[in-house]
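Q: Hi! First time doing this. I have a protein sequence and I read that you can turn it into a structure. Is that right? Here it is:
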Amino acid sequence: MWVFCLGVTAAWAQDDQVARRLSRTLEDQLSPTVSEEYTAFLKLLRSKDTAAQRKFLAQWEGIGQEDPEFYVCYANYYTNLAKKEVIKMTTDPPQPGEESFAINDSLGNVVGYLRGETVMDDLLSAQSLMWLNKGIARFPRRLDLLFGKVYLFGKMVRYDSFSTTILSAIEKSVDNQFEWQWSKGVELQDGKQFLFSTCQDYIAQLFNSEDSLALLWIEPISLALLEIDPKNVPCTSNLAVANMMLQRWEEALIHLAKAHALDPKDDVVLANMGYCNLQLRNKAQAKKYYNLLKKSAEPEYQKLAKEMLQLVKQLK
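A: Yes, that's right. Below is the predicted 3D structure, encoded as structure tokens:
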């Protein structure tokens, strides 16, 4: 049982969690001025009338080249078109709340499940990427366009491109001193904090992908962030997680010790220190950290500590 210091995954199009979170942080600011075309297109996007959307974009194209939202809208148009719902058969049981249809054999035993899955059309996704790249070239301070590429690569399950784009965003953040704009030209008031929190979400997405190659990108992304903030506890903890996934327990403990020194009360760090020592059969150390975790203010960590201490007792 592992506990990782990872957040929710980030998204970009209509189901954009990052944008919703940002809107809350900017709720006290005046709404920026946007073009009438942008407002009109959002109404068409909500109507899901793709024919009307395409006609509108074609008309807007003649005058919209200097409007960054024009590129956002074109990219969203193709991203939404690229999403295709397919039926997939799997032997994995559904997650709680997930819709599926059980397949039974002649004896009534469940032998598989049918469930819906969203896949991305490569050609239409390429059109979305083209418009994002055009927008980034013309408006290099628009972080939402750059993160739009991250979102799209994630949907396409192209984790190498997903991760290299994140690394590019980190590099560009250093170059422009975190002076980014977001949707509608809003100036990010704390571009550094926003970059770190969003990258943490993306690291969670890499972990949740359960793709062994995707997992390898957690370490370089964390290291790039630590170049900016060497005392960042979540990033230091992520380095430990990267090693834990490869069962490099001693290496993981080195990073966890650094994170623990920075924040002795971090629940996730304590849980992972306990787990690494449990795997190394260091009974005294595992007991030490799970006892510290038992003092957590969070009931879920208190429960975890008690459960894991029972396993520690079984060590010889």
